[in-house]
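Hallway conversation turned thread

IA: we were arguing at lunch whether anyone had actually written out Semialdehyde dehydrogenase dimerisation domain-containing protein end to end. Turns out nobody had. So, for the record, here is the sequence (115 residues) and right after it the structure tokens. Reply here if something looks off.
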Amino acid sequence: MGDDSIEVTATCVRIPVVKGHSESVYVELKSDFELEDVRKLLAEAPGVTLVDDTAAQRYPLATEAADKPDVFVGRLRRDLGNERALNMWIVSDNLLKGAAWNAVQIAEYFAAKQV
């Protein structure tokens, strides 16, 4: 566009899948962060599989999430226009990890905590 002052964080995906959904997610945090801290937090989160190896070009694919109950997260990167913002790519099997399954997991969590 001829204007170097325009900053864009772009994610483009064009692949048909039988089942699954993929999302490019933008998150603004309260304070600055280290990407390694975010990676560690996600790697330790139950139900989350971190796939974030840019050197080997490994990131979450809907085809690899099919038939698996986890949510796959990767392509973690700082936003170019906001130092407190994080961009990530998230995929899951929409038949296994959809609204109904989430509701069951939330109910189980609260039942275990007796809230």
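OS: looked through it. The first helix runs from residue 35 to 44.
IA: good, adding that to the notes. The CA atoms of residues 99 and 105 lie 10 Å apart.
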